[in-house]
Specification:
elongation factor; 5 domains; Rossmann fold; 639 residues; 32 strands; alpha+beta; translation elongation factor activity; Selenocysteine-specific elongation factor; six-stranded mixed β-sheet; Elongation Factor Tu (Ef-tu), domain 3; T_Tr_GTP-bd_dom; Transl_B-barrel_sf
Length: 639
């Protein structure tokens, strides 16, 4: 069990821990000289002989050191709120209480200290003060213990209450990746660099490789202590000290606020969607996009808060919000955080992380707010997944979900109405209903294209994607289209996509013009007229002839060798057969040999050969060419 103190300055937190453990808390010279706890103190003691060690984190009470208090409050199991009998409830008593409530610490015990300095009536008055203070919140009815650390009064009763709580503390789940928020880093002669913190999730063993800090530097665990005892492994809920080694690892590179994480879990982020609560004690509403300090784990960063359901948040109210942090953070769903004002002088409120990978766009859309509602209602991946998928047009990245919920895919139990789609950029999750709806929508859009462009066989992939205007990125769209092609409900002819029953139809005017052009192209053999000549021959506009021939090229009736020079499909196949015949006796073709075979000049022959290079029938090798055996045209020609 990890116990953390809380309370106003000079209310006896450190002295109380010394009475409970027999160990001095303030070990720094400046703390002893000033009689003031400045930074976090760490003690380990068995509350009775043979009991497991309890870890104690002593936090400073002065308002100037609230940031240190916040760094120590993360991950504790029980908070020991200390209120001096002579002073009673003071400002930092209230602020510390607000902080531990925001952090969701599950248990509290209250010690009314310095009872030897006052009469019993004063102790009862402070007891009533504390009862009234706790009544509106999560710690209503928390046990209170009058104590005197100097004469030992009430210490044994408090120790027994701590022992009972220790037996009732719920074991934290060791599933998921290891997470440790670093609160100290130091060097030991002969051992090297050591970092300490409270393990928030997972487990770690000697020899494991973890990632350190924002850059994710790989480090190896050379040794470890758990609850101040040498061990070979540690797990969530323990105070842990890790001896780290890595190439060019220096103590100056490690700071309070850095994270040690399992390799697959490392994913720094600058946008986090949270459920935000403003303290009821705030004098005014919180305004949209106000600057704040964000405390998460042992990290303290500045950020802006974008309110998602309005432009201001009233005291005591909750609202979905997005944090735009100035320094990358590490977080998972369910993490608790505290927000302080821009000057870091007072606590404003806090919240719970819902999505550490929040979107930059459509963050206030009804679909996104519905996702946040589902995330706020449960922390179970399986329970929230249907709602997330129902409000997602683009699918969900399972790797992002792994990091968001700190759960590897191997531990998931996916609902039966979820399908996994394979794309070139990795798998995506869709609801079966949504995926089928996307297929139906694409078929409708392709049918609409055929209605609007009846003279075209169909669009290519990219044109269909633009025409359908679906919210899918290209890899996901291609996967959707590939499934439709595999099922036969869409067919492909060359690059053109079309419904099986669709056939391109020319308009009456185009059909009449084609009947004039086709004989001219066929009769010209290997030397057809250019577009200008064809237009002059039939007395039509040059642009209209060019447009029609390009339509016929999409239908596969003609092929454009160079701009404004078209050959019929039959003539192209005839020339392909000539090339195949030329390599029957030797593997490579000279351009002059092809020129002589077709009876054309060198320039036109080269243009035709370059066309065959482009469509993949031939491959140029210096001044010669060979036939690509894998080309479909070559295979049909040989057949």
């Amino acid at each position: 069990m990890i116990v953390g103190t809380a309370g106003h300055i000079d209310h006896g937190k450190t002295t109380l821990l010394q009475a409970l453990t027999g160990q001095a808390g303030d070990r720094r010279r400046e703390e002893r000289e000033r009689g003031l706890t400045i930074d976090l103190g760490y003690l380990y003691a068995a509350l009775e002989p043979g009991a497991a060690l309890t870890g104690f984190i002593d936090v400073p009470g002065h308002e100037r050191f609230i940031h240190n208090m916040l760094a120590g409050a993360q991950g504790i199991d029980l908070v020991l709120l200390v209120v001096a009998a002579d002073d009673g409830v003071m400002p930092q008593t209230r602020e510390h209480l607000a902080i531990v409530e925001l952090l969701g610490i599950p248990r509290m015990l209250v010690a009314i200290s310095k009872c030897d300095r006052v009469d019993p009536a004063r102790v009862q008055a402070v007891h009533a003060q504390v009862t009234a203070l706790l009544e509106p919140g999560a710690y209503c009815g928390a046990p209170q213990f009058p104590v005197s650390s100097l004469i030992g009064e009430g210490i044994e009763a408090l120790r027994q209450a701590l022992l009972a709580a220790q037996n009732e503390v719920r074991q934290r789940s060791v599933g998921g990746g290891f997470r440790l928020a670093i609160d100290r880093a130091f060097s030991i002669a002969g051992a090297g660099i050591v970092v300490t913190g409270t393990a928030l999730a997972g487990q770690v063993k000697v020899g494991d490789t973890l990632l350190l800090g924002q850059v994710g530097k790989p480090v190896r665990v050379r040794g470890l202590h758990a609850q101040n005892q040498a061990a070979v492994e540690a797990w969530a809920g323990q105070r842990v000290a890790l001896n780290l080694s890595a190439e060019r690892l220096a103590l100056e590179q490690i700071h309070r606020g850095d994270w040690l994480l399992a390799e697959w879990l490392h994913a720094p982020t600058r946008r986090l969607d949270i459920e935000m609560q403003l303290l009821a004690s705030e004098p005014r509403a919180f305004e949209h996009f106000s600057p704040v300090h964000v405390h998460l784990g042992t990290q303290d960063v500045t950020a802006r808060v974008a309110l998602l359901e309005g432009i201001r948040l009233a005291p005591g109210e909750r609202m979905f919000a997005q944090l735009l942090v100035n320094t990358p953070m590490q977080a998972v769903q369910g993490d608790r955080l505290v927000l302080r004002d821009q000057s870091a002088r007072r606590t404003l409120g806090g919240g719970r992380v819902l999505d550490p990978f929040a979107p930059a766009r459509q963050r206030r859309s009804p679909a996104r707010l519905a996702q946040l509602q589902a995330l706020a209602a449960t922390e179970s991946l399986e329970q929230v997944l249907p709602a997330l998928l129902a409000n997602s047009d683009t699918g969900l990245d399972p790797q992002r979900l792994e990091r968001q919920f700190n759960r590897l895919r191997s531990s998931w139990n996916l609902p039966p109405d979820v399908c996994v789609i394979t794309t070139r950029q990795g798998p995506l999750l869709f609801s079966v209903v949504r995926w089928q709806a996307l297929k139906a929508s694409l078929l409708e859009q392709l049918a609409r294209f055929h209605q609007l462009e009846p003279d075209q066989l169909g669009p290519d992939r990219d044109r269909l994607r633009r025409f359908a205007a679906m919210p899918l990125d290209r890899p996901t769209f291609i996967s959707l289209l590939d499934e439709l092609l595999a099922s036969g409900v869409i067919e492909v002819s060359g690059p053109w996509l079309h419904l099986p029953e669709h056939q391109a139809r020319l308009s009456e005017e185009d059909e009449a013009m084609w009947q004039q052009l086709q004989p001219l192209l066929e009769q010209a053999g290997f030397d057809p007229p250019w577009v200008r000549g064809l237009a002059s021959a039939i007395g039509r506009d040059e642009a209209a002839v060019r447009l029609l021939l390009r339509k016929m090229a999409r239908l596969g009736k003609v092929h454009q060798v160079v701009r404004d020079l078209f050959y019929t499909d039959a003539r192209v196949r005839q020339m392909a057969t000539m090339l195949v015949q030329l390599v029957a006796d030797k593997p490579q073709i000279q351009a002059a040999e092809f020129r002589d075979r077709v009876g054309l000049g060198r320039k036109r022959s080269i243009q035709i050969l370059e066309f065959f290079d482009r469509i993949g029938l031939t491959r140029r090798l210096g001044d010669q060419r060979c036939i690509r055996a894998d080309n479909a045209l070559a295979q049909r020609t040989e057949g």
